[in-house]
Design a protein that fits this description.
- The protein is α/β, with parallel strands linked by helices.
- The chain has a domain of 100 residues: ANL, C-terminal domain (GMP Synthetase, Chain A, domain 3), CATH 3.30.300.30.
- Helices cover 30% and strands 25% of the residues.
- The chain contains 15 helices and 28 strands.
- The strands form six sheets. The protein has a nine-stranded mixed β-sheet, sandwiched between helices. Strands 1-19-20-22-23 form a five-stranded antiparallel β-sheet, with no helix packed on it. The protein has a five-stranded parallel β-sheet with strand order 5-4-6-7-8, with helices on both faces.
- β2 and β3 form a beta hairpin.
- α5 packs across α6.
- The two termini are 40 Å apart.
- The model has no long low-confidence stretch (mean pLDDT 93).
């Protein structure tokens, strides 16, 4: 059974991303587009368009051309929009980089993407500089000043006349975010101008933002959720976006209070804080009218609790990097009986559910793997045809690896994952990567890593370790923490006699997951 949106298809613009996102810039003029939440610095729509044109001209002047890759290694600031849209304007490709990445992960992404230039901040130079030296990065630009880097401001010192570039929206790439694979190495997700435009237009046709809305950009812009459904969507819809470089609850609440934030795009751990933390009572958050949750499943009880405490609407959506944002979104107001659903499939898009073992197409209320087809599906994984063919079949259906079902009304529910990725606070953690690191320790004979349910984080990486010689759990966790990004740390560890494996030697993580769930019940 194939599910589609009951509304008629939406006509999609057939042009480049920057033109679509900035289509109201002239009309909005002096209206504030972006505010730096930490400093109060404001950028109007007119200023933003001017900065994008100057940066596009500057990129052209240094020889950055169509098809070249710019690595964006920055926290959430107003400049992120300027960089992303200027690179897009000249036909370049943005490879957005996790701001928590250590140098080794940077090297992998810089090399794999063949990044030509890097834009970063002084505080990240200690990781960025050694990575850039290992790769073929031609020049580092920094927002501010730092030894070994060119000030970003120099790229803006020109006449502001951008080059004229012919862009084929259906085939030309504009974004190359990296998504973790179960092999441990992240894969470049190739997204075209059409992919991003389709997701912007289709998702915003469902729960339309009002011109007077003020959004907060606290989820990272390097992630597809922040990149498409917050940063680009806010500008496309002509609202004001307040940026935050990192999450701090009190600062977050103060920004909500100061700027009268009306719409929040969040992940379940942040909704948990808003639902339960006593600090919320110290601030005026009455301006909030709407909260959307994505990137990880949100329990029905938490969705309801947050809505009741803040007296606002809460709805869920579902998507992936590979679909350039969201493929399913619930509508406002959410029917009481549909709380906990991620909604119906967005317009111009098809979805179906299959038996992951047999491939048989399933009907309503039958659990299976969710498949998606539409104009926002990636063109594939960079330099990885095998992985691409594994998840996009001959008929163009993208196999999500997520287990869910659709009810009789076409509302989808996500219940589990075929993939073995751990979702820690919406960040993806590959078990195989941590297992490989663990067994590299001289004192460890074998290891397995699974997701362990956690109220705050959703899931935490838990390791099961077989020892060769005596070592403490704390020493092992410190060993891992010293070598990985913060979200990949082992946060629970159990020393065991053996790791369950199949006859072929594959780790039976499902056995450990079931044991862990039973343990937590008791």
């Amino acid at each position: 059974m194939i599910f589609e949106n009951p509304n008629s298809d939406v006509v999609l613009p057939k042009t480049d991303l920057t033109s679509v996102v900035l289509e109201r810039a002239d009309e909005l003029g002096d209206k504030v587009a972006l505010i730096d939440g930490t400093t109060g610095r404001k950028v109007s729509y007119k200023n933003l368009e001017e900065q994008i044109n100057h940066l596009a001209a500057g990129l052209n002047r240094i020889g950055f051309k169509k098809g070249d890759v710019c690595a964006v290694f920055c926290p959430n600031t107003p400049e992120y929009a300027t960089i992303f849209l200027a690179v897009a304007k000249v036909g370049g490709i943005n490879t957005t980089v996790n701001s928590l990445y250590p140098t080794n992960d940077l090297i992998h992404q810089f090399n794999d993407s063949k990044a030509k230039i890097l834009i970063t901040i002084p505080a990240f130079m200690d990781r960025a500089m050694p990575a850039a030296k290992e790769c073929k990065i031609e020049e580092i630009f920094v927002l501010g000043e730092a030894n070994g880097a060119t000030p970003f401001a120099e790229l803006l010192e020109n006449d502001g006349i951008p080059p004229s570039v012919m862009i084929d929206p259906k085939n030309d790439l504009v974004a190359l975010p990296y998504s973790s694979g179960t092999t441990g190495l992240s894969k470049g997700v190739m997204l075209t101008h059409e992919n991003l435009i389709a997701n912007l237009v289709l998702t915003s046709s469902i729960n339309t933002l009002r011109d007077q809305d003020v959004l907060i950009g606290v989820l990272p812009f390097f992630h597809i959720y922040g990149m498409v459904l917050i940063l680009n969507l806010a500008i496309y819809r002509g609202v004001t976006l307040v940026t935050m470089p990192r999450f701090d609850l009190d600062q977050f609440l103060e920004i909500v209070q100061t700027y009268k934030i009306s719409c929040l795009n969040l992940v379940p751990p942040l909704l948990l804080a808003l639902s339960k933390h006593p600090a919320v009572d110290n601030y005026d958050v009455s301006s909030i009218r709407l909260i959307s949750s994505g990137a990880a499943p949100l329990g029905q009880e938490l969705e309801q609790a947050c809505s009741e405490r803040l007296d606002c609407q809460v709805y869920q959506g579902y998507g992936l990097t590979e679909v350039a944002g969201a493929s399913h979104i619930n509508t406002i107001p959410v029917p009481v009986e549909k709380i906990g659903a991620v909604g119906k499939v967005v317009p111009n898009t098809y979805s179906k559910i299959i038996d992951p073992e047999t491939g048989k197409e399933l009907g309503t209320n039958e659990r299976g793997e969710i498949l998606i087809k539409g104009p926002h599906i990636m063109t594939g994984y960079l330099n990885n045809e095998e992985a691409t063919q594994h998840c996009i079949d001959q008929d163009g259906w993208f196999h999500t690896g997520d287990i869910g079902y659709a009810d009789d009304d076409g509302y989808f529910y996500i219940v589990d994952r075929v993939k073995e990725l751990i979702k820690y606070k919406a960040y993806q953690v590959a078990p195989a990567e941590l297992e490989a690191l663990l067994v590299s320790h001289d004192s460890i004979a074998d290891a397995a890593v699974i997701p362990s349910p956690d109220e705050e984080a959703g899931e935490i990486p838990k390791a099961f370790v077989v020892l060769k010689e005596q070592i403490t759990a704390d020493e092992i966790m410190t060993f891992v923490a010293d070598r990985v990004a913060p979200h990949k740390k082992i946060r629970a560890l159990e020393i065991v006699e053996e790791i369950p494996k199949s006859a072929s030697g594959k780790i039976l993580r499902r056995v450990l997951v079931e044991q862990e769930r039973e343990r937590l019940k008791n």
